[in-house]
Amino acid sequence: MNPTNPTIPVNVQQAFNVAYVASLPTPVQALFTFVYIGNPGVLTLVSNMPFPQYLAQFQSLIARGYGAFLLSVGIGGDPYSVFSTLSATGETWAPNATQIPLGAQGQYSLPGITPYPGYSLGPYPTTKPAGWITVPPMTQLLAPGANVSALLAAWYPPFNPPAPPPPPAPPAPTDPVGAQMTGTPDYYDAPGANETPYPNGAEYTDSRGTFIHNVVATPFGTVSYWALIAAAFPGFTITLPVTTDANDSLAALVSINGGTPEKLAVIQTNAQAYNASGVNVTATFTAAGVSVPALLTAMQALYAAQS
Question: How far apart are CA 222 and CA 218, in angstroms?
Fold first, then answer.
């Protein structure tokens, strides 16, 4: 039994104090120190600092925003004894250290006390006011067969500072096609893009043109990249491949201003464009706002890249 109070089992008082302190934020825990009192020693929670220092630290905690964890009556000694006293008087919750103490002017009356008109807010509240600290039913700890550990775990879960939020995941790129690979007509996957929404053979079109996704299994793992199949330029789109012939012309399927692609050949020496029927369509393109020299330049760049 407890040598300082024979009616309280040692393990109950110790267990309560340990659980209570562990439920407080770390700066508040620093108010108290466990010491052994009596013989055999009872683990008792007390402040081991002079009262002026204790009071200054108590007030500092309030100023730093920890008042909601402290009772307005303060705890200068054993929490078990303080909460047992409050529970015995019928209190089921009590004001925190930032609020007016119970029974004082401008606060509710103590349980069982008739409030003074104009002095008290009214009788002891039947529902928990905002910010008040719960006073557990301490007699439950002493009931025959009480599961003290379960009660304390429910009343005072250990305080765990909230974990910092994980860094936000980088947003998935809206365009999965990255930069062009040096010396090739192929393009990297954009950083952060993955293969799941774009399996092998998937196509994607952006301002640069239309691409097809290639996902290739190798002995060293999966490799994926985008191959350009139709390059977009102002006024026209060129579908790869670009080919050449003995007449020093470049040929490809070309779509003018979003129209149906048709096979065109552009002679490199004079920048004249011909359709599949051999008709010179240079003037038609010019009238449509398409520069045949610009078309030729684009075809030359694509032909060089795919070579």
Answer: 6
SS3 42: strand
| Burial zone of 217 (CB within 10 Å; 0-12 exposed, 13-18 middle, 19+ buried) | exposed
User: How far, in Å, CA of 185 to CA of 305, rounded?
Assistant: 5
What are the CA-CA distances from residue 283 to residues 235, 237, 252, 259, 303 (Å)?
A: 15, 18, 19, 17, 24
Q: Which of 43, 46, 54, 60 is nearest to 2 (CA)?
A: 43
| pLDDT reported for residue 3 | 40
What pLDDT score was predicted for residue 74?
Answer: 57
SS3 (DSSP) at 60: helix
| Cβ atoms 42, 10 nearer than 8 A | yes
Rounded Cα distance between 229 and 203, Å, is: 9
SS3 67: helix
- With tokens 């640069």, the residue in question is 208
Q: So where are the chain's domains?
A: 10-155, 177-232, 234-306
In contact, 114 and 120? CB cutoff 8 Å: no
Q: Could you tell me which of 190, 196, 241 has the C-alpha nearest to residue 215?
A: 196
Tell me what pLDDT residue 4 has: 45
Contact 112, 123 (CB under 8 A): no
Q: Residue 169 phi/psi, 5° resolution? A: -65, 140
Q: Using 70 as the pLDDT threshold, list the residues of the chain that sit under it.
A: 1-10, 34-49, 73-77, 161-162, 172-173, 194-196, 307
